[in-house]
Amino acid sequence: MLRYIIKRVLEILPIIFVVSILSFLFIHFIPGDPARLVAGKDATLQDVQNVREELGLNDPIWKQYISYMGNLLQGNLGTSLKTGLPVSDMFSSRFMPSIYLTFFAMIWATIIGLLIGAISAVFKNKWPDYLGMVTAVSGISLPGFWLGLLLIQLFSVQLGMLPTGGSEGFKSYILPSLTLGAGIMSMIARFTRSSLLETLQTDYIRTGRAKGLKESVVIIQHALRNSLIPVVTIAGLQFGFLLGGSVVVETVFSFPGMGRLLIDSIAFRDYPVIQSALLLFAIEFIIVNLVVDILYSVLNPKIQIQS
Amino acid sequence: MLQRKGWKILLLVVFCAIFMVACSDDKKETNSSEGKGEKEPTTEKKEELVVAVNENFISMDPHNTGDTNSNSVQSAMLEGLLGFDDEGQIINVLAEDYSVSEDALVYTFKLHQGIKFHDGEDFNAEAVKVNFERIMKDKSLRLNSRGFSLIKKIETPSEYEIKITLKETYSPMLTRFGVAKIISPKSVKENPADIPKKPVGTGAYKFGEWVQGDHLTIERFDDYWGKGDRVKKITFKPVPESGSRVAMLKTGEAGVIYPVPSQNIAQVEGDKNIQVFKVPSTIAHYVSINTYKKPFNDPKVRQAFNYAVDKDAFIKVVNFGLGVPLDSIISSKTIYYKKQEAYAQNIEKAKQLLKEAGYPDGFETEIWGNTNSDTMKGMQFIQQQLKQIGVKVEIKSMEEGTLSDEIYGAQTPDDAKLQMWYVSWSSYASDVTNATKPLFHSESFPPNGANTAYYNNKEVDKWMDEANSISDKAKQEELYGKIQETVYKDAPWIFLGVDEIVYGVRSDVEGVVVEPTGGLDVKDANFK
């Protein structure tokens, strides 16, 4: 297992290398001139040219890439074109809140989603199933910005129980994580239900029941466990996406996350920030995938980890 | 057995995650608990004012700031030799007095004595010199070097006197002296990397803490040289979502919000605890028309467009009724503004003018703009208005960077593909040069400037150059009067409207002002 993990971690390096080249090319080939955006709208041509020279944008692209990678290998993410601050400073106040928010959202969404999904499957086509699926469909259909504003209206404006936003203290994480997790919860509930229903039709479940196992043991230990593979897959994917930040939730709750930083930086063509954010997201995604793969083998020992 | 083990690992992972999160939050909570007390009305005087604004702060380096919100925070902490009053006009701040030579090349400032920076350093001519030299020499300060790059020499005849000589005349220089805030010479020399993060100035507030993307706090500086009573602590929070910002004002989580989104004004206006203020700005909306190319090279066509558009309807439909018609080439708050006789909507006259120009049945054209929803609405409005005189307008909205490439990529007027551009412009109310030269001088054709109308009038060029080379205010006023009259008649733009800025304040807060440039002035803010 350990050898497997080390191997997978080493595999990250070439992926990062490819991602870095692709994202570098991508941001340099989209139209838009950061020098002009930096110089301001009343800039003269001379102003713009000075800025371009200053920022090293006149160098050939391979040279810019090498200088970027050189800095990166020394742990230097560069300086933002827009703010003049080190990129690492801009990330540091946003990275951990994004991680916490994702964890909170995933934890409640997974627990509730599994519960609803399992209950719906067990009581297929009875009222708990309908109730569960109505909840799930609502969760996935409510747009995040609307749900968020609704929650603010209720819990902050009317009841005054929770802050409208920010990232100070546990309380301010409650509403954003509810909003962020709603869709995921629904997805997990639906996947759990259909996967569990499928498993319940299989021979070994019938065998289990035939040999007189308690129904709860059949469902929880045998059926649920075996239906978790697709659920883990989808949860892992969603987890990876959420780590990249959620522009909607961050905006509605004025939450200092990575999503809006990336969007703002793209609008400004803030190359160093975009580049580093994309790399960070790639790394996060790879790690999540690694965890998902390990979970597969935990859930189903038949899936062998090859080292 | 194996199965059980698997579940245990899963549980362990989940618990670890919960534990990690819970622990880290405990620490944060203690920090913020004092600020949250605001919700309950107390009889004691409140000590922290929360100001919610629409965007993140970009930088706290006063010599490298272009955005309004960063400027607002800085102006509570830092001061310049000159500054701006509520109307955006120039006043003395750290300078007791100043004079400009007749040839507009030499600026002499007499400085206030006995002022100290937040770090205890003395404010004097030498400190000013260190600041100005930083702006002149540090190439990374791209935004503010304009003007300062023209300085020939800086002399300090006495400890509290400074004399600056320019290589060539530059009339926005006084505004630049207001914009360039003075920071502690010690921070410039010893720790320049910290300037964008925590500046040290002479202002009423000193820097507290900045958690990027979350909040920025400033604290009252008790040894401030100026007068006045003010709240102990101000926390600025970027809250981009309009609805959330309004909710904060309603709950009292914020004492001030800026701006109040136009669609939410009605929602807060009835609230007893909230006051809503509207101030005219210098933000002018217009459509620039490429006067270099057919059919727009004929002034009659451009005038026809102006007669076809109902400006009051524009303000109502596009701007929620917030604004006034643009009745000159500059906003009414801009210095030397001279009201012109506005083009009142007159469809018959517009059709007649088009006919005289040789387009009795109209023609097809296109309008460019960014993807902002207000811009889209504005362009649709223009499209609908021009349809009345038979002109068919195609709307092309482009992402900002792409749009900028399309417009400034044209190296000569012949290359330009632009026909009409829906856009806005704002400059300091005290700086008429920047409100005119980049837009109407023939030197400012893209890519060298923002004269996207390719407006080319040698006489107007000459007047601008002359006004820029003198310091005589009466003469400047006369020249800018002529410029406004001539350009407005030539109609290189469809003149639309000037925005009003709206901000909301809780009734127990006083001393908050918004300047025409959009800068929020909170240095005298207090609870009643």
Automatic annotation (TrEMBL), chain A:
Keywords, ordered alphabetically: Cell membrane, Ion transport, Membrane, Nickel, Nickel transport, Transmembrane, Transmembrane helix, Transport
GO terms, molecular function: nickel cation transmembrane transporter activity
Residues of the signal peptide: none
Statement: the UniProt record of this protein carries the keyword Transport: yes
Membrane topology: Multi-pass membrane protein
CDD domains the record matches: TM_PBP2 (cd06261)
Record-annotated membrane-spanning stretches: 12-30, 99-123, 130-152, 172-191, 228-253, 273-299
Family annotation (InterPro entries): BPD_transp_1_N, MetI-like, MetI-like_sf, Opp2B
A single cellular component GO annotation: plasma membrane
Subcellular location: Cell membrane
Domain ABC transmembrane type-1 residues, every copy: 95-292
Recorded coiled-coil stretches: none
Family listed: Belongs to the binding-protein-dependent transport system permease family. OppBC subfamily.
Role summary: Part of the ABC transporter complex GsiABCD involved in glutathione import. Probably responsible for the translocation of the substrate across the membrane.
Subunit structure: The complex is composed of two ATP-binding proteins (NikD and NikE), two transmembrane proteins (NikB and NikC) and a solute-binding protein (NikA).
The protein's name: Glutathione transport system permease protein GsiC
Naturally occurring in which organism (per UniProt): Viridibacillus arvi
Automatic annotation (TrEMBL), chain B:
Pfam families: SBP_bac_5
Keywords from the UniProt entry: Periplasm, Signal, Transport
Membrane-spanning ranges: none
GO BP terms, alphabetized: dipeptide transport
Organism from which the protein derives: Viridibacillus arvi
Location relative to the cell: Periplasm
Protein known as: Glutathione-binding protein GsiB
Function: Part of the ABC transporter complex GsiABCD involved in glutathione import. Binds glutathione.
Superkingdom field: Bacteria
GO molecular function terms attached to this record: peptide transmembrane transporter activity
UniProt keyword ATP-binding present: no
Domain Solute-binding protein family: 90-443
